[in-house]
C-alpha cells in the first residue's frame, strides 16, 4: 500500500475534489451524544459532574476544583527550561499584537475605539495519551496579555493524579483554579457554571470530537465564545524540486501522529519529488513503528500527493483547502507566500517544520481547521479583545447633520422617536 499520488488540474475538479473533503469533521453524531450530558450539567451542576466523571473516567472526585498554588511540584530542570523558553517566545510574539485605543475626528465629532478584554476564560487541556501541556501556554498567554482577569484550566482527572507539568504550568501562568473534569461535561461546567465551577465567557483548547462538539454547540447557543470550530489536525505542503523528500515525509507524519483522522497533503509540480516522498514514507513506517497503525491510516486514507503542472495551481489549490498548517518548501518561499490568502499558520523554507510552531518559535498553535482559515484566524491577543466604539457629537455637528437624520428616519418609519431624539436637541440650538 502507498499514499495516493494524483496528477491533478484545477480545470478538472474531479481530480482533486475528494482531497478538499478529507479534513472535514462531521460533528452531528457526537453532538447527538453530548446533548444529554450538557443538559444534565446545566440542571444538576456538581452532581452531574461527579456522575459523568465516575462513568467515563472511573474516578470518584473528592474535589471538583483545585488551587494549583497550594500544590507542591518538582519539574526536572531541563523540562522547566524548555517550557520557560517557549513561554518567553510566545509572550514576545503575542505582546506585539496588543491593540491601542484610538480616536478620530469625523465631521466635527470624536469617534473612537476602546479595547476591553473578555472577563473570563477556560483553557481545556486533554488528558491521557493526548496530553498537550504546550496548549496551556498557547491558550493562556494571549489572554493574559489581553487582560483577561479570571482564567481556569479544565482537564480530565487521572487515576494516578493530575500530570505535574499541568499543575506547574498553572502555577507559573497564574491560573486561578484547575477544574478536574474532562470531556463534554467539563466544557459544560465552564459554559454554564456549577456550584464549584465559575462560568467562563470564553473556552479555548484542543480536545476529542465530543469536546469539539460541545464547544461548537454551546457557542452556537450564544453561551460561550470559542477559538474556532475544531476538526482533525492537518498540514498542506507546497514544494518544488529543491525540497528534501525525507524532510517532507517527516513533516507529513508529524501530523499523522495526531490521530488516524489527521490529514497531510503534498502539492508539487515535480513527479520525481512525489515518488521520492512516497518512498520515504514507507521507509519511515519501517524504522519508526510507534503508533504505526494510526499513522498509516492517516496517510493512506486521509492524505495524498497532488502533482500539478504549474506552481500557480498548487497555490490556488492550497487557497481552496485553507489548511490549518501550510509549509512552503520552494526555492523562494516568500514568492509563493505572497499569493497565499487562507491558512491558519504558514511555515516558510526548509528549516520551518510545523513542530517548531507547535512548541517553541512563538506563534500560536491553536488554529482553525477544516477550511476554517477562510474566515477564522489563529488564536491571538485579538481573540480576547472586544472593540467598544464610542462617539462624542458636538452641538454644531448635530445641527448640521439633523436634516439627514430626519430624512433617513422617515424613510425607515422611525421618525417618531429616532428622529425626535435628534430633533429636540436641534430645536434647542436654533
UniProtKB/TrEMBL annotation:
Pfam families with a match to the protein in the record: Histidinol_dh
Annotated binding of substrate, by residue: 233, 255, 258, 325, 358, 412, 418
Residues binding NAD(+): 124, 185, 208
Annotated active site: 324 (proton acceptor), 325 (proton acceptor)
GO molecular function terms attached to this record: histidinol dehydrogenase activity; NAD binding; zinc ion binding
Enzyme Commission identifier(s): 1.1.1.23
InterPro entries the record matches: Ald_DH/histidinol_DH (IPR016161), Histidinol_DH_CS (IPR001692), Histidinol_DH_monofunct (IPR022695), Hstdl_DH (IPR012131)
GO-annotated cellular components: cytosol
Cofactor(s) listed: Zn(2+)
GO terms (BP aspect): L-histidine biosynthetic process
Its job: Catalyzes the sequential NAD-dependent oxidations of L-histidinol to L-histidinaldehyde and then to L-histidine.
NCBIfam families: hisD
Identification of the protein by name: Histidinol dehydrogenase
